[in-house]
Design goal:
With about 260 residues, the chain is α+β, with helices and mostly antiparallel strands. Helices cover about 15% and strands about 45% of the residues. The structure holds ligand LBFN2T5F. Catalyzes the stereoinversion of LL-2,6-diaminopimelate (L,L-DAP) to meso-diaminopimelate (meso-DAP), a precursor of L-lysine and an essential component of the bacterial peptidoglycan.
Length: about 260
């Protein structure tokens, strides 16, 4: 079968997105999804996303990592699928859609997408790192040598090491640039490499840095390798709510390939 796909990127985190409202894609074909995401033998992407019908919201997002396995929430992918839904004429400027971690509100103006993330009630603070789940699991370390750090090697050691083991965690390295500005580099589970940006990752970094008083601001700017993102949030007695991931989502091209 010939499959029409769209390539999107959100601060350099890139995705193959397919309109699967007619259920033409075999969702268990891990091998084919991994082949399509391969940067030498396929289209090349950090992830593969299906847009599907949902009975109680505008659409459903099904997310796969580049290894072909369905995974947990993708923040940049979530922003890209909102732009795709607008391109398809499914939504105007506001939407509510379903992802693996529940319903998300979002809005789009130009190419900037505001995506609401789930509330966060637990942040684990350790001597040298923090851990929290923003729809996907995130290990966070503050470092001085962010520019020269071997993110792939050190990220992989942490991702496969204790306590995460096979199930793994994404790993974020952070350097503070000013009172509300942080540079972030992320090793992504399922891509098993550094990506240019990770939406759930920068969300986790913003909340974690606020939690350990590195910033007192409720809007934090995150500098990723692929561009700038913002995270807005409110603190409550339980943790954080009203969390918004804000940044551009861009269609790169449309293509056709054998599924
Ligand atoms: N790129 C993503 C995160 C995708 C999921 C992650 N690789 C995992 O499996 O946990 C983002 O923008 O949030």
């Amino acid at each position: 079968m010939r499959m029409t796909f769209y390539k999107y990127q959100g601060t350099g985190n890139d995705f193959i997105i397919v309109d699967n409202r007619l259920s033409q894609i075999d969702k268990n074909n891990t091998k084919r999804i991994a082949e399509l995401c391969d940067r030498r033998f396929g289209i090349g992407a950090d992830g593969f996303i299906l847009l599907e019908n949902d009975t109680s919201s505008d659409f459903k997002m099904v997310y796969y990592n580049a290894d072909g396995n369905e995974s947990t929430m993708c923040g940049n992918g979530g922003r890209c699928i909102v732009a795709f839904a607008k391109f398809l004429g499914l939504i105007a400027t506001k939407t509510e859609f379903l992802a693996i971690d529940g319903l998300h509100n979002a809005s789009i103006e130009g190419d900037v997408v505001h995506l609401q993330m789930q509330n966060v009630s637990s942040i684990e603070v350790y001597d040298k790192h923090l851990y929290l789940d923003t729809g996907s699991p995130h290990h966070i370390e503050v470092v001085d040598d962010l520019e020269t750090l071997d993110v792939k090697t050190i990220g992989a050691q942490i991702r496969y090491g204790k306590p995460y083991n096979e199930n793994g965690s994404n790993v974020n390295f952070v350097k503070q640039l000013s009172y509300n500005w942080f540079a972030v580099r992320t090793y992504e589970r399922g891509v098993e490499d550094e990506t240019l940006s990770c939406g759930t990752g920068v969300t986790a970094v913003a909340l974690a840095m606020h939690n350990i008083s590195k910033t007192s601001q409720n809007e934090v700017v995150l500098q990723t390798q692929g561009g700038e993102l913002k995270v807005r949030f409110k603190e409550n007695t339980n943790g954080y709510e009203d969390i918004w991931l804000i940044g551009p989502a861009v269609q790169v091209y449309k293509g056709e390939i054998e599924w």
